[in-house]
Specification:
Length: 214
């Protein structure tokens, strides 16, 4: 039986270095934010690496099978993300209920929006920020906005990749389209930031208020 051969998944050792830099940057930022002000940029590093690996996997699957198995893709993502997320959410919620009841305010919504991967949008609507402390204390779920963005990326990007592969025959043209979209996204973020500085938009600019950062 003739088998269709495609590109093999490759291991890129340099990504280990990027992940290490990202982890160190985030740790230093939380330890001494006044000295390592840009350390939080380790988070976008992880997002870029994750985006590249997911895209590479989708392209390999399409080249091999001429299709993308969305069911299998989402099952893998579910198994990868939800067990740890559920453990953190319900473990933290139980601790708060028993020992830190001053943090109970909106706890049910924090848990629900994290399970639905829309926590970053909930933060926006409630005027909460990654860099700000809340009135009732710092939220134990502050850092989970990144998982919401990752979940939204997993939900949108595979369909966009398949649409581009089916509608645009040249990979070079696809790359150009993606670069244009990325540039437009960056420009829009810059505009929002300038609007914030000028006090035109009441919500403060914050990296946790981005939908896609790839």
């Amino acid at each position: 039986m003739k088998q269709t051969r495609g590109r093999k998944r490759r291991y890129i050792h340099g990504f280990d270095g990027l992940r290490t830099i990202g982890v160190i940057g985030v740790i230093l930022y939380h330890l001494r934010p006044e000295l390592f002000r840009g350390g939080y940029l380790g988070v976008p590093i992880f997002m870029v690496v994750s985006g590249y690996l997911i895209t590479d996997g989708l392209l390999i699957e399409f080249d091999r099978n001429h299709r993308i198995d969305f069911k299998s893709f989402f099952i893998r993502r579910f198994k990868r993300l939800y067990p740890g997320l559920i453990t953190v959410l319900f473990g933290t919620a139980a601790y708060i209920t028993l020992f830190s009841q001053n943090l109970l305010h909106n706890l049910h919504m924090m848990v629900l929006t994290n399970l639905l991967y829309v926590y970053n949008w909930w933060q926006i609507l409630n005027g909460q920020s990654y860099f700000a402390r809340y009135a009732n204390g710092e939220s134990p779920f502050t850092h989970l906005w990144t998982l919401s963005i990752e979940g939204q990326y997993y939900l949108i990007w595979p369909f966009l990749v398949l649409a581009l592969l089916l509608l645009v025959k040249s990979r070079h043209q696809i790359a150009n389209i993606v670069l244009i979209l990325a540039a437009a996204s960056g420009a829009w973020m810059a505009i929002l930031y300038m609007m914030t500085i000028a006090h035109v938009q009441p919500a403060a600019f914050d990296p946790s208020r981005s939908l896609l950062r790839y």
